[in-house]
């Protein structure tokens, strides 16, 4: 078989952006569409892999190519597991990863979640006079002085770092993504290299966003780093082309 083929390999890919509930109707979220992760899952299935996509709030239009990719001759399979919140995603990734050869974390996972999501819709009326601080589970969005109630946040687990520290399957390949911007403290690549060392993933695909210097000018440009922060490969193109680049790197690193 061609070395870049993935027949019989099992891949877990996370994609989309998590929604962290404030109450039953509101959430803290992000703008991730899930397109890059779906492109990776689709390209892997087209190469023969059996793929599980852990999907955080991805629209049906964005998900559609995944089903199409399994129809071609020689293609593998694809299964979608919905994981709307960071905690859902952690549970789904850990359980699905226990039988995976590689895990690609392309999802935008919220770093924080409301510590006590309201059990019913929080009301904005009933302004305080001595109503006291909004407490956990309360349905009144009223702060101590009658202003808007603060939303207390707690840290979510870092799923990627958890996989690196305690791999569900020994020897599996763990791949992360990082969208970085440049600022006065350093450029996007320097931030990416620091993140690569911190997270310890076997490969970290760094996307420069809005950098204005070099690789961030291209919508889908990635530099792939190793756990020491050294450059392994770089590429640019469509999300599908970025997916193929990453899958080449993954395929050549899987044990024969
Ligand atoms: O948000 P950040 O830049 O730290 O994300 C980098 C990588 O870490 C991504 O692959 C993302 O999926 C992963 N991540 C995670 N759990 C988090 C935050 C990020 O697995 N709580």
UniProtKB/TrEMBL annotation:
This protein is called Coenzyme A biosynthesis bifunctional protein CoaBC
Q: Which gene encodes it?
A: coaBC
**What are the GO BP annotations of this UniProt entry?**
coenzyme A biosynthetic process; pantothenate catabolic process
Q: Identify the EC number(s).
A: 4.1.1.36, 6.3.2.5
Binding-site residues for CTP, renumbered to this chain: 111, 121, 157-160, 177, 195, 199
Q: Which pathway does this chain act in?
A: Cofactor biosynthesis; coenzyme A biosynthesis; CoA from (R)-pantothenate: step 3/5; Cofactor biosynthesis; coenzyme A biosynthesis; CoA from (R)-pantothenate: step 2/5
Part of the intact protein present: 208 to 463 of 463
What keywords were assigned to this record? Decarboxylase, Flavoprotein, FMN, Ligase, Lyase, Magnesium, Metal-binding, Multifunctional enzyme
User: So what family is this one in?
Assistant: In the N-terminal section; belongs to the HFCD (homo-oligomeric flavin containing Cys decarboxylase) superfamily.
Cofactor comment: Binds 1 FMN per subunit.
Specify whether Metal-binding is a keyword of the entry: yes
**Does Secreted appear among the keywords?**
no
User: Its catalytic activity?
Assistant: (R)-4'-phosphopantothenate + L-cysteine + CTP = N-[(R)-4-phosphopantothenoyl]-L-cysteine + CMP + diphosphate + H(+); N-[(R)-4-phosphopantothenoyl]-L-cysteine + H(+) = (R)-4'-phosphopantetheine + CO2
Report the function annotation for this chain: Catalyzes two steps in the biosynthesis of coenzyme A. In the first step cysteine is conjugated to 4'-phosphopantothenate to form 4-phosphopantothenoylcysteine, in the latter compound is decarboxylated to form 4'-phosphopantotheine. Catalyzes two sequential steps in the biosynthesis of coenzyme A. In the first step cysteine is conjugated to 4'-phosphopantothenate to form 4-phosphopantothenoylcysteine. In the second step the latter compound is decarboxylated to form 4'-phosphopantotheine.
Cofactor(s), names only, from the UniProt record: Mg(2+); FMN
Q: Which GO terms describe its molecular function?
A: FMN binding; metal ion binding; phosphopantothenate--cysteine ligase activity; phosphopantothenoylcysteine decarboxylase activity
Give the DNA/pantothenate metabolism flavoprotein C-terminal domain ranges: 6-126, 149-252
Q: Where does the record place the region Phosphopantothenate--cysteine ligase?
A: 11-256
Q: Name one GO cellular component term.
A: phosphopantothenoylcysteine decarboxylase complex
């Amino acid at each position: 078989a061609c070395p870049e083929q993935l027949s019989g390999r099992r891949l877990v890919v996370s994609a989309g952006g998590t929604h962290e509930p404030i109450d039953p109707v509101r959430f803290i979220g992000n703008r991730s569409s899930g397109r890059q992760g779906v492109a990776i899952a689709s390209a892997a299935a087209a190469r023969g892999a059996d793929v599980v996509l852990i999907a955080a709030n991805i629209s049906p239009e964005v998900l559609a190519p995944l089903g199409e990719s399994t129809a071609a001759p020689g293609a593998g399979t694809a299964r979608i597991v919905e994981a709307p919140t960071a905690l859902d995603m952690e549970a789904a990734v850990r359980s699905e990863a226990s039988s995976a050869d590689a895990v690609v974390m392309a999802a935008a996972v919220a770093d924080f979640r409301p510590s006590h999501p309201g059990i019913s819709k929080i009301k904005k009326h009933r302004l305080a006079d001595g109503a006291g601080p909004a407490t956990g589970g309360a349905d009144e969005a009223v702060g101590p002085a009658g202003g808007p109630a603060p939303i207390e946040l707690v840290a979510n687990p870092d799923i990627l770092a958890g996989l690196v520290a305690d791999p569900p399957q020994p020897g599996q390949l763990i791949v992360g993504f990082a969208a970085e911007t440049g600022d006065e403290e350093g450029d996007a690549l320097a931030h990416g290299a620091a993140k690569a060392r911190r997270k310890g993933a076997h490969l970290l695909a760094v996307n420069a966003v809005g950098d204005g210097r070099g690789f961030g000018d291209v919508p889908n440009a990635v530099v792939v780093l190793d756990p020491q922060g050294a450059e392994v490969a770089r590429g640019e193109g469509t999300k599908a082309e970025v997916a193929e680049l990453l899958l080449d790197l993954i395929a050549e690193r899987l044990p024969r």
